[in-house]
Amino acid sequence: MLNIQRSRSTLPRLLLLVIVTLWSALALGHVSAHSCDSTTGFPNLQARDLSGCDLTGASLNQANLTGANLSGAILNHASVQGAVLTRTNLQGAVLTGANLSGAVLNHASLQGAVLISANLSGAVLDHASLQGTILMGANLQGATLTHANLTQANLTTVNLTYANLSYATLYQTTGTDILWSSTICPDRTTSTADGGTCAGHFHV
Fold it and tell me: pTM for the whole thing?
């Protein structure tokens, strides 16, 4: 009888120990909803909050960043090749020298972002918001920007060779030495037919 009572008296202690152990394991394994660690071994960063994070030089190739929040993040010289950034928030982000070649940025928000000398060749930015975006020296060769909004964007020395700007809004854009070569202009004409430029063909 004594042994039975002792066994019963230890049950609450054992139960408490199990609960504490499980809680500790969960706490240690928990990944915060807002974490600047993009190398957690989870290639799917969908809807992840990386706002304000310093991801300089990060490798995010082929990552799924659909709906992620990267507003104000620093991605200088980051490699984001072939990544999916559909509806991703990149407002005010700094991506100087970043490689986003082949990335998908449909409906992405890039208002006020800095993409100086960024590589966006072959990227897809349909319906993307690029108001006030600084694209100086960016490579947009072969990129698709149909219905994109580039109002007040800085396009100085941007390479738009073979880019598709069908129905894009380029109201009050600024920039000199833009490379127009076989570019599809917003009004669906081509820079080749328009004297080597899309100037004067910004509005549909």
Answer: 0.81
